[in-house]
Amino acid sequence: MDNLKIVVIGAGIGGLTAGIALTQAGYEVEIYDRVRELRPVGAGISLWPNGVKVLNRLGLGDRMAKIGGIMNRMEYRTKTGELLNTIDLMPLIHEVGQRPYPVARRDLQMMLLEAFPGEVKLDHKCIGVEEDDTGVTAFFENGHKARGDLLVAADGIRSILRTYVLGEEIEPQYGGYINWNGLVPADEELAPQDHWVIYVGDHKRASMMPVAGDRFYFFFDVPLFKGIPANPDTYKTELKEHFAGWAKPIQTLIECFDPYAVARPEIHDVGPIDRYVKGRVALLGDSAHATCPDMGQGGCQAMEDSLVLTNYLMTTNLGVEYALKRYEMERTERANAVVQKARKRAEQIHGKDPTVTQQWYDQLAIEKPTDVTNAITKVITAGPLH
Fold it and tell me: For 342-371, what is the mean pLDDT?
């Protein structure tokens, strides 16, 4: 279909990637976001090859390589530092034809913003949509209206437009743990610069992975009740308590991070839901399938959505609603499976059933590295770009 005008709500990873893909396809795209200033949520993200391949397809491969960290190996260690398993990632890279890239979220968002040729209109909170036979209109709190042939709802885990598509409100579900994350200068005392190191024990995790600019993206996971107030003044004290007796690199990491530059989300997911589309409105990214970050697939799935949506619009002349239905069929099957798999993994890692978590620890010590890379490869190659 030619000459479509598309309204995108949300300027996160999904909204911006969709904006770039749809613009490259020759469509007119306007992106709106409710925030006054774009500040990414969280310090870093691991982009596995299925997400990177979408960026390659959009001509952003070189830019991505500049901001991504070089990660050649994964290491699992016990909380006291004994090596459980070391996993060479090169076989995976050769199998799927692309490196994974851990990346600072700010770097990724800035790269996508620069690559989107249109204007991103900030301080526009979408409060509703109306459809008719010829198009869809978005209404904003500030009185602005935007009309297009279709609307892409990339408005995140607490999406307003998801309620419109589903006809009911879906509350994000608590994943059972809190995650502290940030960036620190890379240092051999913390971890080798090309390694992703994960310490596990007591149903908790502490992890570091390389990003560009000689930095590590780190995170700490602790299974806790929801609703504990967040106060950067106490982050270090809290983490010293939660990780008392853990290996020296973990103590060094707690000493060296800046608590005021740390994000502390309570981890939630959404779904699986059985509808991503209503008429001319399509959910994309976290609004459709927010995912526990335990597989590193949240951002990747939003990128896949963008590519698949664009492909269906470009390759049919049966109308917008037909293209969106095809998008929905393909993406509900793929992304919902990832949501379920990531939640199961979150529960396995964080002690929902302590016996299951202990079995995982035991398995890590004896697992063949190729079993780990094969499992990751399977997830990657189930996407649209094999």
Answer: 96
Asked if the structure places residue 375 within a domain, the reply is yes
- For β-strands 73-78 and 83-88, DSSP reports them as antiparallel
5-22: b (≥16 Cβ within 10 Å) or e: ebbbbbbbbbbbbbbbbb
Overall number of domains in the chain? 1
Let me know if residue 386 belongs to a domain.
Answer: no
- Report yes or no on 121 lying in a domain: yes
The parent domain of residue 357 ranges over: 5-172+268-381
Closest CA to 299 of 35, 45, 110, 109: 45
Instruction: Tell me the whole-structure pTM to 2 decimals.
Output: 0.96
How do residues 47-67 score in pLDDT, each as one tens digit? 999 999 999 999 999 999 999
Confidence of residue 38 (pLDDT cuts 50, 70, 90): confident
The CA-CA-CA angle for residues 352, 176, 328, to 5°, reads: 105
Residue 308 lies in a domain: yes
Find the CATH number of the domain harbouring 168.
Answer: 3.50.50.60
Task: Give pLDDT tens digits for 111-138.
Answer: 999 999 998 999 999 999 999 999 999 9
